[in-house]
Amino acid sequence: MDIFKLISDIEKVDPEVYDRLDSRRRVFKHLTGVGTKVAAAAVPAFFASVFSKAYGQGTALPSDIAAILNFALKLEYLEALFYTKGVATAGLIPAGAGLTALTNIRDDENKHVAALRGLLGSQAIAPLTDSFFDFTGSKGGTRAPLFADVFSNYQTFLAVAQSFEDTGVRAYKGGAAGLKANDAILEAALNIHSVEARHASHLRLMRRGGPTVAGAGTGASPKSWITGTEGGGAGGAATAAIYGAGNPASNFPAEDNVTQGGIQLQTALASLNFPASAFSEAFDEPLDATTVTNIALNFVVGNSF
Amino acid sequence: MHDNSFLARTIHRRSFFRVAGAGAAASALMLAGCAKEEDNNPTPINQQLVIGKADSVNFTVLNYAYLLEQLEAAFYDKVVTTPPADLLPGELAYLTDLRDHELIHREYLKVALGSNAYDASFVTQFAFDFSSLTLTTRQGVWTAAQRLEDIGVAAYNGVAKHITTTGYLKMLAKLASVEARHAALAHEVLQAGSWAATIGTTGLDAAKTPLEVVALIQPFVPIEISTAYLPTT
């Protein structure tokens, strides 16, 4: 991990990063404690402290922005811990392209955790750990599991992964409006949002068996984009909420929505002669935090998320 | 139009232009009907394509999105109409889905913008120029698709912060993640494992400013795109 590249990457996102850091020298001063060659493992911590210095500047973020970021952070913990466990489970993921992709996704989610913690600084929640989650959906054995074989059946693992990514895409979209007051944070959130969409697209491709397999748009053979509500998605009834309407439905319509900005697309664009599926695929829909929380609670041991 | 000498045609072509808009740098290109085929796409002279609006950053951003969607739609439309002979099974279905989505995006933005669309008063729409691309091979088509989709994602990621209304921000975000889904696929069909090419060392996707994006799409637009009114950050 090249620190200079890291800083230059931040610079691409935020040209004013150096102003925020006062000077380049400040960054390097920051590095003297750990030596100029920083181990990859130390990067998230470094990243977080640089970010909090740059953007936190010792002043608290407005509570509504902090709440949205902490909510996103919890979802990132859910994803990061899920992939960490999956990649570490012997015999679950076949060696080769699948393992490479899932390792990359795991790393992305860990970086998202670091980025969000950095933006939040001292306002970040305490880190969530493995014991907080139950990825089988049995809520710590208190009910029948939704995905009993999530860590023994590769296809189930991919299906749950897709569910998390599709939820993440909708959650970030739902949270974006609340971040509008802070340009740097909104842009960072949207940059994470599109990464989640790339993850979702790729997991869907993996589930259907690669790019040469046409997706049916439902069940175990999804397209890379969301067709209607996909019959409830990867887990049928268990994942239906991920593709359904939020609350209020007028602001958070289901994924099969074909009315945008008050324009009924099939009517207004009838001349295109496209199927309803195309109109629904062309737009991803946002989801509200309450609905996302209820989806996430299926994978939490306790009763609060 | 009987005189076919170069000079005479140049002068004639010039007379087809009408400068619209309220002075400043704003000069939309309007073409009166031409009698001859060869005059349908004259080379503009000192004309610029103004996609921004001086008094509205929101309409500027939406028109910027509209131009990007027009570009993508025109590209996929051309590819689906004349697909490369070496497409693999299933790839035409992908390209058709992508064409459908981008056409829907384009037409939706056109309806949403109405008279605020930068090209609302154009008599003739200019044609995008894809001559720099290789569209006769699947390699060329998917390479171009990757490029255009990645530009779209980075453009939306970079410009969204300038929108001042929640509704328009949501609209852009609804498009952005679909473009990202497209981009991941467009990478993967050509090169297994390349789907994450744009994701940086920080785990964040690329974001580009409108000026960076304009430079990237200018090769496909036969008229110089004016950067007037576009956000510079």
From TrEMBL, chain A:
Q: Which InterPro entries match?
A: Ferritin-like_SF (IPR009078)
Organism domain of life: Bacteria
Species in which this protein is naturally found: Hymenobacter sediminicola
User: Can you say what this protein is called?
Assistant: Ferritin-like domain-containing protein
UniProtKB/TrEMBL annotation, chain B:
- Source organism superkingdom: Bacteria
Instruction: Cite the InterPro entries for this sequence.
Output: Ferritin-like_SF
Record organism: Hymenobacter sediminicola
Q: What is this protein called?
A: Ferritin-like domain-containing protein
| Pfam families (UniProt xref) | Ferritin_2
